[in-house]
Amino acid sequence: MRNFTDFALRLGYERVKDLGDKLVDIGGRLNWEEFRPLLEAMYKNNTERGGRPYLDVIVMLKSLFIQQLYSLSDEQLEREIADRISFRVFLGTTEIVPDSTTIWKFRERLAETGTDQKIWAEMQRQLDAMKLKVHNGIMQDGTFITSDPGHAKADTPRGDEAKTRRSKDGAWAKKGTKSFFGYKLHDAMDEKFGLVRRIEVTAADVHDSQVDLAEKGEVRYADKAYFGAKTKGYDAAMKKATRGHPLSYKDEMRNKRISRKRSPVERFYAFIKCVCKAGHVTVTAIPRVRVKMVITGIVFNAYHLDSAKCKLQA
């Protein structure tokens, strides 16, 4: 029966392939098997007691990849995998479809064990192996990832016994006249290839300048929020006028040059919020938000991998 099912799906997929399959094209740019040892290490043993899912760990990771790319809830993801041929072909599974509970538990285990950070490190290793290492420097910035504040007032701690939807680790922050509740994503993008190399998630009230993602010897291009902030790399933050110290013409020209250098980092935020619809989350803790942002970062890098290789050859 399985051979017949495989044959039917492959036959149906030929039509999809002729029309163009973005998912298989993008997802095929990564070496998924290299993630296997990291994922299997999350489970103590192969028994049910060890918590091992009944599906292959690569199938589960690829499911999260689909979920972020197409902005699907766990329930929607289960339904779409069962319904769409291209999803089944990408996952490499025909008869068994991950249910929403299994998907949720797998994502929770990534957050609890910190394996998402190891997955991100493996992604960076693969980029380095493709000769896409950081050469000239990085562009660092931060953006709000909002969450549900619930009905409690802004100055009311959530507490362990709270019965509202308010996020456990979320916090209020203000930018200009607008207030935001939730988290902040800090990232560093490679200046030459436009790939995201480092990610950190904090509460929304952590100022951008408090997070330094540069490494020693790298130039860190940043906006005025990082003015005066210490960095392990070379400081290339835009200067900000202070009381009694207006910007000189030379400083203004310098700011314009840096602004042009750092502007591509905004593409990642547009991708998160417009393509993946991940600018607002319903999860309640920083590790859970980090998992979503790590997977989204992997999707972004895979999406732009071909253009990065073109820049390498240029």
Account of the protein in words:
The chain is globular, with a radius of gyration of 22 Å. It has helices spanning 2-19, 22-27, 36-40, 57-70, 74-83, 85-91, 100-113, 115-129, 249-262, 265-275, 286-303, 305-313, and strands at residues 137-147, 171-175, 178-190, 196-203, 219-222, 234-237, 280-281. Helix 1 crosses helix 6 (85-91). Strand 2 and strand 3 (178-190) form a beta hairpin. The chain is of the alpha/beta class. The protein is built from 12 helices and 7 strands. The mean pLDDT is 87. Strands 1, 2, 3, 4, 5, 6 and 7 form a 7-stranded mixed β-sheet that branches.
Main features:
seven-stranded mixed sheet, 314 residues, alpha/beta, 12 helices
In brief, what are we looking at here?
The chain has about 325 residues and is α/β, with parallel strands linked by helices.
What's the SSE blueprint?
Elements: H1 2-19, H2 22-27, H3 36-40, H4 57-70, H5 74-83, H6 85-91, H7 100-113, H8 115-129, E1 137-147, E2 171-175, E3 178-190, E4 196-203, E5 219-222, E6 234-237, H9 249-262, H10 265-275, E7 280-281, H11 286-303, H12 305-313
Parallel strand pairs: 1-5, 1-7, 5-6
Antiparallel strand pairs: 1-3, 2-3, 3-4
Helix pairs in contact: 1-6, 4-11, 5-6, 5-7, 7-11, 8-11
